[in-house]
Automatic annotation (TrEMBL):
Residues 88-475 form the AMP-dependent synthetase/ligase domain. InterPro entries: Acac_CoA_synth (IPR005914), AMP-binding_CS (IPR020845), AMP-dep_synth/lig_dom (IPR000873), ANL_N_sf (IPR042099). One of its GO terms (biological process) is lipid metabolic process. GO terms for molecular function: acetoacetate-CoA ligase activity; ATP binding. Keywords: ATP-binding, Ligase, Nucleotide-binding. It comes from Penicillium chermesinum. Belongs to the ATP-dependent AMP-binding enzyme family. Pfam families: AMP-binding. This is Malonamoyl-CoA synthetase vrtB.
Length: 624
């Protein structure tokens, strides 16, 4: 039920309080744990304290409650969840700006079987790598599940990523097979990918097979120039139809619990992005804990997160299958145009929620702030208003959700939902702090520190200051199963990268994440204050200054003598970080600012375009 008249500590204003705590899965879990161990668990904070003080018992109970099947690998738990829906129920809804696709559990399993057989006949083996230069559509999920069923590792990069950034990642892991979309539909326009794919394939000498998804109509995608030097190129349909044993059953490789399933990448702050390898059991256990307990996700619910395949939230979304939920994939602009209705497309996602009866909607803080600035009220829109009656929760991440946006959501989007501002990272492929269906929502606060995650705030000397309400570095003081299994490459080199990334600040037993936070000692909520390291996060897009510098060095070495890339966020003025690039132009070859900015387009992700570009013949650097 909505609340707006109560104040928590440190000025936290209560906006919502759950009305049916006893009906949630987390309440059921808390009751069962309390009875089994004969301990008084009266509220969430008591449960959280127990989960971090008794981690072995806690994770054992999570194992039993989530009903993960130990004899089944990660992908089998997704395709055959414990609370399995009817095989004819919808498992995946794939949506674009133009089309809808409804895939049953039975059809999904069959498509994975066909793709897995094709991959095996192409020579894919356990521990090989498969990459996807692909959008957020159903065939991407099928390819990932088929890949991991064999024991190979999956890595995804969105087609809007620049060629330079793609190669910085893929050249390190050397994929044997690459899936690629031949085009994408975005904001009403079809964008062909032939030029990008040609450049990518040309710089991957170890690639054996390029499989092309035909993702848009009437696109001229010629195979000339995209064939791997030592391999072949084939359409996805031909890739599957060429299988010799068409009736081969779907088999799942039996592998160790920490066998890799995903490779994601660090931001590239200190050089090339580091490949972060995540294991199957830790990922599955963590995601099911978050979905069942923190999101109250159930069979029959419809989970949607607006995400690209690069972002960690894609993997989090796909794991919703393991809870028996229907996952909704959307590939396109969140503000697709509505010519007959005018405006800037702000109603696109609310209408998608209404049309597809989405129960759990995830997005970025930036998206919600855009709706706030437009003063959008979906239920009072002049053209085809929507009630959003199926909506149970909204999740926001990528950057801190502004306090005013909290109030906007309850005033204009829906008065009685759980607004889960959440935070975690690519590094753990999950959440440190999350929503909670048995806790109130306070303005500007993430509801809680996640179960099993011993999150606290440290001052520079390594003292726990969370009880004081003072800001500090986000750290985790107890191990958790979703830690990466390794950094690529395997061996001492990757291990050293791993250690330096998280355990170099406060010692070998304290995970240092790089976020600056404040814990409310009364509500237990967490306030995100930004990054404490050099990572840039405009609009939630996480990348490092080194990626900018690498593009400058490659394309503008003669024109730009020196540069400095920084993030700016003015207290009380800016709700998001602005990326500013200062460049010192070479006197011998001055370059207009506009051409320098344009030069970033083909080499860097369009979602990471610089907001401010300042050029001068002088660049003064001072140490502080």
């Amino acid at each position: 039920m909505p609340h707006s008249d109560e104040q928590g500590s440190l000025g936290a204003k209560e906006l919502w309080r759950p009305s049916s705590r006893e009906k949630t899965q987390i309440y059921d879990f808390m009751s069962k744990v309390g009875q089994k161990y004969d301990i008084p668990l009266k509220d969430y904070n008591a449960l959280w304290q127990w989960s971090i003080s008794e981690p072995a018992k806690f994770w054992e109970e999570i194992w039993h409650y989530t009903q993960i099947k130990a004899h089944r690998p990660y992908k089998q738990n997704l395709l055959y969840p414990a609370n399995a829906p009817d095989e004819n129920d919808v498992a995946i809804i794939g949506a674009t700006e133009a089309d809808r696709e409804f895939i049953s559990w039975k059809e999904l399993r069959e498509r994975v079987r066909q793709c897995a057989n094709a991959l095996k006949e192409a020579g894919l083996q356990t521990n090989d790598r498969v990459a996807g230069f692909v959008g957020n559509h159903a065939n991407t999920v099928v390819a990932m599940l088929a890949t991991t069923s064999i024991g190979a590792y999956w890595t995804g990069v969105s087609p809007d990523t620049g060629v330079h950034a793609v190669l910085e990642r893929l050249k390190q892991i050397e994929p044997k097979i690459l899936f690629a979309d031949h085009a994408s539909l975005y904001n009403g326009k079809v964008h062909g990918s032939h030029a990008k794919v040609r450049e990518i394939v040309a710089d991957l000498p170890f690639l054996e097979v390029l499989v092309v998804f035909e993702t848009a109509k009437d696109v001229d995608f010629k195979f000339e120039g995209v064939r791997p030097a030592n391999g072949k190129v084939v359409t996805y349909n031909d890739f599957q139809s060429a299988v010799q044993n068409e009736s081969a059953s779907l088999e799942f490789a039996s592998l160790p619990p920490d066998h890799p399933v995903y490779i994601l990448y660090s931001s590239g702050t200190t050089g090339a992005p580091k490949p972060i390898v995540h294991g199957s059991l830790g990922t599955l256990l963590q995601h099911k804990k978050e979905h069942l307990l923190h999101c109250d996700l159930r069979p029959g619910d419809r989970l949607f997160y607006f995400t690209t395949t690069t972002w960690m939230m894609w993997h989090w979304l796909v794991s919703g299958l393991a809870s028996g939920a229907t996952i909704v994939l959307y590939d396109g602009s969140p503000f697709r145009p509505f010519d007959v209705e005018g405006g800037n497309g702000e109603m696109a996602m609310p209408r998608l929620i209404e049309e597809l009866q989405i129960t759990h909607f995830g997005t970025s803080a930036k998206y919600l702030s855009v709706l706030e600035q437009a003063a959008l009220n979906p239920s009072k829109h002049a053209h085809r208003p929507v009630s959003l009656s199926t909506l149970k929760a909204i999740f926001s991440t990528g950057s801190p959700l502004a306090p005013s946006t909290f109030e906007y959501v309850y005033a204009s989007i829906h008065p009685d939902i759980m607004l889960g501002s959440i935070t975690g990272g690519t590094d753990i492929l999950s959440l440190f702090c999350s929503g909670c269906p048995i806790l109130p929502v306070y303005k500007g606060e993430i509801q809680c520190r996640s179960l099993g995650m011993a999150v606290t705030a440290f001052d520079p000397a390594g003292n726990d200051i969370s009880a004081s309400g003072e800001p500090g570095d986000l750290v985790c003081t107890v191990p958790f199963p979703a830690q990466p299994v390794m950094f690529w490459p395997p061996g001492p080199k990757g291990l050293e990268k791993y250690r330096k990334s998280y355990f170099d600040v406060f010692g070998p037993n304290i995970w240092h994440h790089g976020d600056f936070v404040r814990v409310n000692p009364v509500t237990g909520g967490v306030v995100m204050l930004g990054r404490s390291d050099g990572v840039l996060k405009p609009s939630g897009v996480r990348f490092g200054s080194a990626e900018i510098y690498n593009v400058l060095l490659k394309h503008f070495a003669d024109e730009i003598e020196d540069s400095l890339c920084v993030g700016r966020r003015r207290e009380g003025i800016d709700s998001d970080e602005t990326v500013v690039l200062f460049v010192k132009l070479s006197l011998a070859s001055p370059l207009p600012c506009q051409s320098s900015r344009a030069g970033f387009s083909p080499s860097f992700a369009k979602s990471s375009v610089l907001v401010m570009f300042l050029a001068s013949s002088i660049l003064v650097l001072r140490s502080q």
